[in-house]
Write a structure and sequence with these properties.
The protein is an alpha+beta fold. Helix content is 22%, strand content 28%. The protein is globular and about 70 Å long.
């Protein structure tokens, strides 16, 4: 499901060695949230913390540039938009190692076609959606975030079955929460190592590197066995 003007970006390409200095001014009550966000999974190093008389805290970090991918939107939500973030390139350093927090479970489409309101209404109960009714989707495409750990395959193309039998009472109204739209930078920071980013002139999509669901299942089983075997040694 790729056009001739499609650019593919993989998880392994997120390697960069640039190290910027990051300066954040935020309400003191959110300072702990920012420290945890930058140091826990993003390889950040807290250099300075100072409080001002107006109840704000200034935090100074050294963070690998790839550790800042997706950070702006994440921290804007966590601090209710009160954080002011500035960063300045410091120098290039050796590769800091793998950066990654808790991997999010995804809602993965298992059919090709147009997403319809009926299916989206039911699937929206399983997590947060990235697509709307009428959007073109295909098998292996990530169409949302699963509310539970692990990936879940769903069908957003299947329409409601129609019959000649009418039920008493009014038809149930269908409602789907607004789809969450992520920027390219946010998606790069959000993608897992088994996913790629597809960029075309008309759309940006997150998808599994392996589109075939059976092949992904086989790979997952093999990977699980390898991890189990490695733990026993």
């Amino acid at each position: 499901m790729m056009s001739s003007a499609c650019i593919m970006f993989s998880f392994s390409q997120r390697v960069a060695r640039a190290l910027p200095t990051v300066i954040i001014d935020v309400e003191s009550e959110y300072s702990g949230t920012i420290v945890e966000a930058l140091t826990a999974g993003r390889k950040g190093l807290l250099l300075e913390m100072s409080d001002s008389a107006d109840g704000k805290t200034r935090l100074v970090f050294e963070v690998p540039s790839r550790g800042l991918l997706g950070f702006q939107s994440e921290i804007a939500t966590a601090t209710r938009g009160t954080a002011v973030v500035n960063h300045l390139f410091l120098e290039n350093r050796e590769y800091a190692g793998h950066i990654g927090g808790v991997e999010k479970g995804k809602l993965v489409c298992n059919d090709n076609g147009k997403a319809n309101l009926y299916s989206l209404t039911n699937i929206s109960k399983r997590g947060e959606l990235f697509v709307e009714a009428g959007d073109i989707v295909y098998s292996g495409m990530v169409i949302g975030e699963n509310s539970r750990a692990g990936d879940l395959e769903v069908n957003v193309v299947k329409a409601k079955e129609t019959t000649n039998v009418r039920k008493a009472g009014k038809e149930e109204k269908l409602y789907v929460p607004p789809a969450k739209k992520l920027s390219i930078e946010e998606l790069i920071g959000y993608m897992n190592d088994d996913e790629v980013l597809e960029v075309t002139p008309k759309a940006v999509r997150l998808r599994k590197a392996e589109l075939d669901s059976k092949a992904r299942e086989r790979f997952a089983r093999t990977r699980k066995k390898q991890m189990t075997s490695a733990q026993k040694k």
